């Protein structure tokens, strides 16, 4: 039996108030760092979500949509004077949502005074139009634009404005003495801008042929127009 003498010091173990304070401070610091990390992550995620929403809104605000009919024009190919085809497709577009203007600076012009369309040398066009059918795909086809109704004489499609876009698959050839039909001919080669329509080695659009035109602005959604040529080609056709 072990006894303790009266007055002898007792050997006790424990922590002091200073040690307790240090431990508590360490817990507070760790908790603060963790809370800061969580909050920072949440704020970052919130900012990224907000940027995504704003980017989506900007994309929608910069989009265009068709207004009205898609009109196709028949032409008689000069090479044989007997073959008819669709040589031009026209449609009217406007802003889908009131917002950012769409740059419709065209690579070509047309005035019915010569062999349209007429190339704009070194044109800095931002909107590109592609053409696809069962026989070929052209990433950049010639197109021109004319304005319908109110416009401020620039090349930006803005709120309240409408533009008629004409896609030229073949070029006009006024040396052809046709009256009911417009004489048309193939493009000789891709142009100086890199765009190209139908060459003599390509396949013309005929009756019942389905084709797709995509209007690709610098920003915003792509406008896709898909139509089928009728079973009989008239001088002017409303492709519904």
Kindly, what is the distance between the CA atoms of the first and last residues, rounded to a whole number of angstroms?
111 Å
Q: Which structural class do you get from the secondary structure elements?
A: alpha+beta
Radius of gyration (Å): 35 Å
Number of strands: 15
Main β-sheet description: 7 strands, mixed
Shape: elongated
Write the H/E string, N to C.
Answer: HEEEEEEEEEEEEEEE
Number of domains: 2
Estimate the strand proportion.
25-35%
Enumerate how many helices there are, as a single number: 1
Average pLDDT works out at 81
Q: From the structure provided, what is the oligomeric state, counting identical versus distinct chains?
A: single chain
What are the SSEs and their pairings?
Blueprint: H1 17-61, E1 64-77, E2 84-95, E3 102-103, E4 108-109, E5 118-119, E6 128-133, E7 137-138, E8 143-148, E9 156-157, E10 162-168, E11 171-172, E12 182-185, E13 210-216, E14 223-228, E15 236-238
Parallel strand pairs: 1-12
Antiparallel strand pairs: 1-2, 1-15, 2-10, 3-9, 4-5, 6-7, 6-13, 8-10, 11-12, 13-14
Question: What would your notes on this structure say?
Answer:
- There is one protein chain.
- The chain has 240 residues and is of the alpha+beta class.
- It folds into 2 domains: 16-61; 64-238, no CATH class.
- The protein contains 1 helix and 15 strands.
- It has one helix at residues 17-61, and strands spanning 64-77, 84-95, 102-103, 108-109, 118-119, 128-133, 137-138, 143-148, 156-157, 162-168, 171-172, 182-185, 210-216, 223-228, 236-238.
- Strands 1, 2, 8, 10, 11, 12 and 15 form a 7-stranded mixed β-sheet that branches. Strands 7-6-13-14 form a 4-stranded antiparallel β-sheet, with no helix packed on it. Strands 3-9 form a two-stranded antiparallel ribbon.
- A hairpin with a 6-residue loop joins strand 13 and strand 14 (223-228).
- The longest helix has 45 residues, at 17-61.
- The chain is elongated.
- The protein starts with 16 loop residues before the first helix and ends with a strand.
């Amino acid at each position: 039996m072990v006894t303790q003498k009266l007055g002898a010091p007792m050997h006790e173990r424990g922590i002091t108030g200073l040690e307790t304070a240090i431990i508590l401070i360490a817990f507070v610091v760790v908790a603060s760092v963790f809370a800061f990390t969580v909050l920072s992550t949440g704020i970052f995620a919130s900012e990224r979500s907000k940027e995504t929403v704003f980017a989506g809104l900007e994309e929608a605000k910069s989009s265009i949509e068709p207004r009205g009919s898609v009109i196709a024009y028949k032409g008689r190919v000069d090479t044989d004077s007997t073959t008819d085809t669709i040589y031009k497709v026209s449609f009217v577009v406007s802003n889908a949502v009131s917002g950012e203007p769409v740059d419709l600076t065209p690579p070509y012009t047309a005035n019915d005074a010569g062999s349209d369309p007429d190339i704009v040398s070194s044109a800095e066009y931002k909107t590109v139009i592609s053409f696809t059918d069962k026989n070929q795909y052209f990433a950049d086809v010639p197109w021109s634009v004319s304005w319908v109704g109110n416009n401020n004489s620039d090349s930006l499609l803005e709120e309240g404005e409408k533009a008629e876009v004409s896609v030229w698959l073949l070029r006009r050839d006024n040396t052809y003495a046709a009256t009911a039909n417009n004489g048309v001919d193939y493009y000789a080669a891709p142009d100086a801008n890199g765009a190209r329509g139908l060459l003599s080695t390509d396949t013309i659009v005929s009756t019942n042929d389905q084709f797709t035109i995509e209007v690709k602005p610098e920003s915003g959604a792509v406008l896709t127009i898909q139509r089928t040529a009728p079973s009989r080609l008239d001088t002017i056709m409303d492709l519904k």
